[in-house]
Amino acid sequence: MFSLDQISAFVAVAEELHFGRAAERLNMTQPPLSRQVQKLERAVGARLLERDNRRVELTDAGQAFLPEARRLLALVETASDLARRVEGGAAGTLRLGFTAVSAIRTLGPFLRRMSEELPGVDVILHERVTPAQVDGLLRGELDLGLGRPPFDAVALDSRVVFREPLYAVVPADHRLATVGRALSPADFSNEQVISYSPTQARYFHELTVRFLTNEHPRIEQRVQQILTVVLLVAAGRGVALVPASARSLGVQGVAYCELVDSGEAGPVELHAIWNRESTSPLLQRVLGLFEDSDALRASIDTKVILDRHQ
């Protein structure tokens, strides 16, 4: 088999058509350069160069071999560059999990920063509720998640990337839509409330329970997704508590109301979540984007609505 050194020697001589200039270009002397070309010809099984004391010319076989040799050297250089960029976290593939509502204010700005600062990284998106993201991280199916606590703090590490207040969402013609003040837990007494699954949407289930402690709402539905909650409210099936970013969903027929002391139940947090055992340089570069909190917050403050059908 031939070596890359032999290929490089042949390409230099073929382009210079002079052994002396080719040797100078490669910072070597002529005898070892000639030996490299001879070894290549033996390995290929064809004479690639015609040479005498006055001239060097490519044979027909050499003319056919030259573009392939150049392509091989370029491929090696491209592969080497890719390996260096992957090792430095500037290239590769990021498998990113996200919840539907996290996409509204966070995912779009984050992906734009990825495109600007890490253009060599491909992002594969996986929409999953937080428990499914956690499972994917532990199984190695995901590199990073955007989800809600709680999660296994022993196996997973996390960083808060966004905080927002909790709001009430009510039908547009509901009495609570026109009270003209922030709503208190007492306002929900005996109201029909759409709540959340205590297993698949545990975070929002617990926020709802904490805010409505000591009141007596009627829990009629328990669902997983914020969008489903808002659509049920729009259909007149009850009222609910949602993160402020749900206002950007664009669902018609609902009104959003501030809550009194909603901090007692929140604020609503979104976390970047990853496996503690990950040694990926790319993951470390991506997490660095979240460290620049001012820049990310400025991006997030621009409303972004993810087209779920793309």
Give your account of this protein's structure.
The chain is an alpha/beta fold and 310 residues long. The chain folds into 3 domains: 4-87, Orthogonal Bundle (Arc Repressor Mutant, subunit A), CATH 1.10.10.10; 91-162 and 268-300, D-Maltodextrin-Binding Protein, domain 2, CATH 3.40.190; 166-264, 3-Layer(aba) Sandwich (D-Maltodextrin-Binding Protein, domain 2), CATH 3.40.190. Helices cover 41% and strands 22% of the residues. The chain has helices spanning 4-16, 19-25, 30-44, 60-87, 102-117, 130-139, 202-211, 226-234, 281-291, 293-300, and strands at 49-51, 56-58, 91-98, 120-127, 144-147, 156-164, 166-171, 192-196, 218-223, 240-243, 254-258, 268-275. The protein has a 5-stranded mixed beta sheet with strand order 4-3-5-12-6, sandwiched between helices. The protein has a 3-stranded antiparallel beta sheet with strand order 10-7-11. Strands 1-2 form a two-stranded antiparallel ribbon. Helix 1 (4-16) crosses helix 3. The longest helix is centred in the first third of the chain and has 28 residues, at 60-87. It is rod-shaped, with a radius of gyration of 31 Å.
